[in-house]
Each structure stands twice: as C-alpha cells, then as structure tokens.
Write a structure and sequence with these properties.
alpha/beta, binds SN-glycerol-1-phosphate, 33% helix, 236 residues, 18% strand, 8 helices
Length: 236
C-alpha cells in the first residue's frame, strides 16, 4: 500500500543527480520531515536512484520514488508517485510515458503502491517545464481549471503546484486549494527558510523542499519543518 500521505505537511525531495552522503541523509531524516521523495528531471539513472535508496534504507521514514523515466524504476520503495503534467504541451507527459511504463512493467507493478499526482508547472524556466513543453501563459483561472480537471475528470488525489527553482505566489496556491474539494495540494519551489515555509505551509496542504538541502540553507531545514507544522496548528 502507498503509505498514509494525507497528513504530510513537509516533504524533502532528494535529487538522484545531486551528491548525497550519509551526513546529508542524517540531516534530512533528523529534520522531522514527514517523508522523502526521490525524484528529479535531469540525468536520472537507475544507478543514481539505487545509490540514494541504499543510503535511505536504514531509516523508517516513508521513502517514495517519483517516477520520471521508465529506466529509473527501482523496486523496494514504500510508494511510487506518478506525475501527470496537466499543462504539458507534449502529451507524452500526460499519458504517453505512462502507457509505455505500464506496457513494460504493468504485470509486475503493485498498483496499490502507486499514487498519481497532477502537476501544474508554473515556472516556465525550470527544467521540467522545458522537458514537458509546458503551456503558457496561464491566468489564475487557467491554473484553477487545470486543477479542477485533474481532480474531477482524472480523479487525481493530489495536485502539485510546481515552481521548481523559484518561489511562487502563496495567494495563487491558496486560491487553487480553496477551489478544490477533494484533492490535496502540494507546493514545491524555492523554499529555503522558515518564513517561506510558513507562508506556503498555510496556502498548501503539503510543502516540498528540494534544492535548499544542497546549499548552505540546509541549516534552516529544521526551521522549515517547524514552520510548516506550526502553520497548521500542529505545534505551538
Ligand atoms: C522540485 O518542487 C520541488 O520538484 C522543490 O523545488 O528545488 O526549488 O525546492 P526546489
């Protein structure tokens, strides 16, 4: 089964293409984050995913692989996130790559371990926007419309507002969340301190931090966890 995820407030995304060692993983696990996602866009190979998996293995925190390429699928994770890029200009990223993966590994997959996520990519300059040929410009009504299609037409349980590499607009994220009824909203992009974590933590159900752990800002990681949980009234 995919682990209980609805109450996650803070998640760290580890990029297999960036250097990780035992010290880094200890910082991440010790931060109090709710889960670890392994995922990235560029140069992802099974070797790199396996290396991270081995480093994470001793820890009980949920370990989730966000599947970006068929080649990097690695069994043993606690769950698998499958992105469906709602504003992709190339249909490969809405259903094409998924169909190829199902053709190859459909018989071996435990579909109960799979959670689909509806991505809306809002930073046109990020690598995944270029890869998927994401469509712009988008008004806030367009973003909400994508989110509602994801929730109601595709029954996606999770809408992921992706600003990878830049900090987004918390008001827009709030607006999307308030326009949905069932799907939970994940936000990722540019969070590197407690203040940004708190603001986005109030706007979204779950915040995802990535790049900050590969920079000096890792010293603020625990603060981002506290801020995300405090925003929801988990801590006082
Ligand atoms: C990337 O949403 C995540 O997929 C996190 O973004 O690396 O900018 O924190 P950052």
């Amino acid at each position: 089964m995919f682990p209980e995820w609805e109450n996650w407030r803070h998640v760290v995304k580890l990029d297999p293409d960036k250097p990780s060692d035992e010290w880094l993983i200890e910082q991440v696990v010790g931060s109090g984050t709710d889960a670890i996602i392994v995922g990235g866009t560029q140069n992802i190979t099974r070797e790199k995913v396996l290396k991270l998996f081995k480093l994470l293995k001793p820890y009980t925190l949920p370990k989730i692989l966000e599947v970006s390429t068929i080649e990097s699928i690695t069994f043993g994770f606690d769950g698998y996130l499958i992105p469906v890029v709602l504003n992709a200009g190339n249909p490969k990223w809405i259903i094409g790559a998924h169909k190829e993966a199902a053709k190859l590994a459909g018989d071996m997959m435990d579909w109960k371990e799979v959670l689909p996520e509806g991505y809306i990519i809002l930073n046109p300059d990020c690598a995944v926007a270029k890869l998927t040929e994401a469509l712009y410009p988008l008004r806030k009504s367009d973003v909400l419309a994508y989110a509602r299609c994801g929730e109601n037409l595709f029954s996606l349980p999770l809408i992921y507002i992706e600003y990878s590499g830049s900090y987004g607009n918390p008001e827009l994220v709030s607006y999307i969340k308030s326009g949905l009824t069932k799907a939970r909203v994940f936000y990722g992009g540019g969070i590197d301190n407690a203040q940004k974590a708190e603001m986005m933590g109030k706007a979204a159900d779950t915040i995802v931090v990535g790049n900050m752990i590969y920079t000096d800002s890792i010293k603020f990681l625990k603060d981002t966890v506290k801020a995300a949980k405090m925003g929801a009234g988990y801590l006082t």
